[in-house]
Amino acid sequence: MICLGIESTAHTFGAGIVSSDGKVLSNVSDTYVPPKGWGIKPADAAAHHERVSSQIVESGLLKAGLSSKDISLVAYSHGPGLPPCLRKGLDAALRFSKENGIPVVGVNHCIAHIEIAKLFTKARDPVVLYVSGGNTQVLSFSEGRYRTFGETMDIGIGNALDKFGRSAGIGFPAGPEIERLARESRKYIELPYTVKGMDLSFSGIVTEALRKLKSGEKLEDVCFSLQETLFAMLTEVTERALSHTGKDEVIVTGGVAANSRLREMLETMCRERGARFHSVPKEFSGDNGAMIAWTGILSYSSGNRTVKPDIYPNERTDDVDVLWLK
Ligand code: ATP
Ligand code: FE2
Question: Which of 176, 157, 178 is nearest to 168 (CA)?
């Protein structure tokens, strides 16, 4: 089976082609970038997706050296995400399915971030740290679902970094630039540390970091302190999930998993506990079509059928029955 996966939940429109033996044949995307100082306007991102969708799907086929006739299944991200953006992905998937007479399957975006990480890292039953723009969750599979052990009580970690970046004059996405600036400092400025039980809260820390910046602290030092604080919180909760579940493997996935400092902290924690640590490859950390294609294959092969294709803007990771895992 060869599956075309379409991703469109937020800023990125992606197309990926994956075979049922787990080979990624192509993975292409185009990202909507809002004007400097602005956040994503859903209608603008959706207009971007509409503009690029056919061309991205074409280019995915071309890179894979395939024609549309070679594709036997089309998968799309049905949620969570921004409704106008999700609808563009659904439209593109339905169009492709109809033109080629093949089935269409809707998949959960968050689960796709987890499954693509498992594909590449060969992790079998890990504690998952899923860190992206809109999401921050510590999860683990138990009794048919990925169960949430801890999560953000306000915004996702990526959005926290982007929010800080927007006010500090850094373009979108701010994560990579904050990482670069943080490397130029070793001065830790005290910031609030907010872990409550297994849950986390980020927005107060961003406000305080911006206040430090206004009071004259150097941008590099604030970026360094922000990363150290936020990533220590994530590492603490992940460590406790390892301890509660008795599992011996951790994977990190989602856009923020591209960050080397976060990986380093998690790796150190895992080494000290005798657990294995793996990170999703950088190319597949952010939103991409390949992760949707691979999850589509897993879902379809386990008997899932999407009878009435639709969008589910608020579907949580732990709402989904994961039929392909026992
Ligand atoms: P989701 O829908 O899964 O919540 P998303 O749609 O926002 O996520 P992703 O591509 O998974 O998209 O993640 C994007 C986020 O990753 C952005 O907030 C961006 O700043 C952050 N990011 C990207 N690279 C880095 C990095 N090197 N360090 C920290 N953050 C990063
Ligand atoms: Fe994502």
Answer: 178
Task: Kindly identify the ligand whose nearest atom is closest to the C-alpha of 9.
Answer: 1
pLDDT value, residue 35: 87
Q: Is 326's pLDDT higher than 80?
A: no
Distance between CA 212 and CA 163 in Å, rounded?
15
65-98 pLDDT, tens digit each: 999 999 999 999 999 999 999 999 999 999 999 9
Ligand 1: residue whose CA is nearest its atom 16: 255
Residues 6+ apart with CB under 8 A from 58: none
- How far, in Å, from the CA of 302 to the mean position of ligand 2? 23
Looking at the CA of residue 135, tell me the nearest atom of ligand 1. 4
pTM for the predicted model, two decimal places: 0.96
Task: Please return the burial class of 287, using the count of CB atoms within 10 Å of its CB with bins 0-12, 13-18 and 19+.
Answer: buried
The whole-number pLDDT of residue 36 equals: 79
Domains, the chain, with CATH or none? 2-113+286-319 (3.30.420.40), 123-283 (3.30.420.40)
Burial level of 36, CB count in 10 A (0-12/13-18/19+)? Answer: exposed
Per-residue pLDDT at 53: 98
Q: Is the CB of 14 under 6 A from ligand 1?
A: no
Strands 249-253 and 12-19: unpaired
* Residue ranges with CB less than 5 Å from ion ligand 2: 132, 287
Token pair 């301890």 is found at: 243
CA of 255 from ligand 1 middle (Å) equals: 3
Does the beta carbon of 208 lie inside 6 Å of ligand 1? no
pLDDT at 171: 86
pLDDT tens across 214-239, in order?
A: 999 999 999 999 999 999 999 999 99
AA letter at 172: F
